[in-house]
Design brief:
Elements lengths: L31 E6 L1 E2 L2 E2 L2 E10 L7 E13 L3 E6 L11 E9 L7 E2 L4 E3 L1 H4 L46 H7 L78 E3 L8 E3 L5 E4 L11 E6 L2 E7 L16 E7 L5 E4 L12 E6 L12 E6 L4 E6 L2 E5 L4 E4 L16 E5 L5 E2 L4 E3 L2 E12 L7 E4 L5 E10 L3 E14 L7 E10 L6 E11 L4 E14 L3 E12 L6 E16 L8
Parallel strand pairs: 10-11
Antiparallel strand pairs: 1-6, 2-3, 4-5, 4-7, 7-8, 7-9, 12-13, 13-14, 14-15, 15-16, 16-17, 18-19, 19-20, 21-22, 22-23, 24-25, 25-33, 26-33, 27-32, 28-31, 28-33, 29-30, 29-32
Length: 588
Amino acid sequence: MTKTMNNRLPLLLLALLASAAGAFAAEQSTAFSYQGRLLDGGAPATGLYDFQFTLFDAASAGNAVGSPLVKDDVPVTNGLFTAELDFGPGIFAGQARWLAMGARAGTNTGGFLTLPMRQALNSVPQSQYALVAGSVASGAVTAGMIANNAVTTAKLQDGAVIAAKLADGAVTEPKLDATLSSSLARLGGAQTFSGANNFSAAGNTFTGSGAGLTALNAASLASGTVPDARFSANVPLLDRAAQTFTGNAYFTPTSGGVGIGTTSPGDVLGIRGANATMRIFDSAGSANAADGFIGQSSGLLQLGLFGTEDVGTPPFNIPTPYKRSFLAMDTNGAVGTLERSFGLASSVADYRITLDDGAGLMKFGNRNGQMLNFWGTDYGVGVQNNTLYQRSVGNFAWYRGGQHSNTELDSGGTAALMTLTQNGDLSVPGNVLMKNIVGLNFKQGGNRSSYDPTDIFTFPEDQEQTLDEITVRAPAAGFIFVSAQARLEFNYFEVTGVIANLDFKLYDVTGATPSLLQFRRVIQRDGPDIVTHTFTAAWIIQVGNASDVRIRTTAQGGDGTSRNFEIRLYEHNLTAIYIPVRHGPVPP
């Protein structure tokens, strides 16, 4: 090996601890093994180092015995090293000897850094003196020749006392610990194994807290309990306060199920608790009024929304901080909508609308309102006090069979049973039984039953004023029965001494020229300023084919002068009924 001249000795702090555990390598050999520990810079050294060993006859000063020994490139591992030393024969003849040591890095060729303290050499090297015993004949020294306590430890050669020569308990543990190398493991002390160790015997047992164990294979654990603190935060625990699964979590029990609030779920998932609910969040953010829930309360399975803020219009809003139930089902199979907060509904009686009462019937509860709505609220069915009504901004129609059509009053390929137009015209192609009279296309107009002060007709002398006009459809040949009634007030404006007329007329205005059907007149001869008269008129019009017939009623008053008169309308009714010709003559 090539060594450099870079001298690192000033940088080395050496501490050599000798344990004279030497042994003769071969018969008659004067060599012995020296084990020591080297610190470099205060830390255990590792690498190749050069050592110099010199024997002295005194702990300090004194004379060197023999020549110094130099050992180059001695491997040092974790501060420990072993060197084979041989100072030759005659060096150890029983006299006291001290060993001086020096060291340098293996790459240097400079001087050695010498340890200030010399190491006293005890029995092991000195036992070389026993080599001279080889000249004593075997058995020449008998027990009687050896005085009591004459053979001391220092006089015994290493290995001379075998196990059979030792009495039971003669060698104690403290005696062994004092002489064994620090590299040897002790049962009663803390041990650090710097090399690989294999404890493969099946009967091996380990006791203690296990603190400091690393790289332990969990598959080798056969019994015992691993504390919760030893588990990673990624491992869910039964009693951990908050546990978040960032990946997909699957619970696939082969038997039983998952219970929340119960140890007996009875199904794949079971939830138990007073008014127990399961919340379904609208988004990944904080809770809001759009969060849904499903829950069980008062025997009703309920579905609704949370009320983290007061939203909606009372009484059906979601009040803070409650849960509003919208849909529920009871144990009888009834399904309905609710208008109460979760936990307050107690029976089907709390349903706002019963979609199915358990027997296939739909109910809307005991309340007024337009229950069914189509196209907003323009079309619908509702309930008023003592009244069931249908609403339409257009027409009404009743069809039998056919297909849907978006075209107005299109029966979809079949005949209409009945139609009622937005103008109030009712048409029934079939027969209608009305007080034992079979009729079609009943039409009624006016139909006033109380006084309205705004219905005032003021007109010049002898000018007619139209009171009402209706149109009735005759689908085929037959008769139109017309009935009219009016109660009118005639105001003279305090004109006395005159004769005035008040006329009520019934016309057929189907053609270009009106046809007067009936005329009623009242002649008023000088009387009170205000006079009320009731007029009635009736007529039968024969039609030869399908046609529309228009009927009109008028009023007229005057006294032959240019004075104006005032007429007020109290009551009025105009009715027209079509009667098919096949049902015989029309009664007068």
